[in-house]
Amino acid sequence: MAWLSQARKRIDAGVWEPAAVKKSRAVAQRVTMNDYYIPDLKDAPSKAGH
Questions:
Q1: Contacts of 17 (CB under 8 A, 6+ apart)
Q2: Measured between alpha carbons, how far is 12 from 6 in angstroms, rounded to an integer?
């Protein structure tokens, strides 16, 4: 039950988060701008209009 005392300390310190929030934050940190924009840029016209 060490995890319980650690959780209690985090709650008392005001920094506790539900596990689902931690997991979604971890996933969000792995997504980069390249994941969204690089595939789109290869199909975009160049400045010269080509």
A1: 25
A2: 10
Query: What is the chain's length?
Result: 50
Domain boundaries, the chain: 18-42
Q: How far apart are CA 29 and CA 6, in angstroms?
A: 24
Cβ–Cβ < 8 Å for 7, 16 = yes
Q: Which two tokens stand for residue 48?
A: 């010269």
Indicate yes or no: pTM above 0.70: no
**At 39, is the pLDDT very low, low, confident or very high (cuts 50, 70, 90)?**
low
Q: Are 10 and 16 in contact (CB under 8 A)?
A: yes
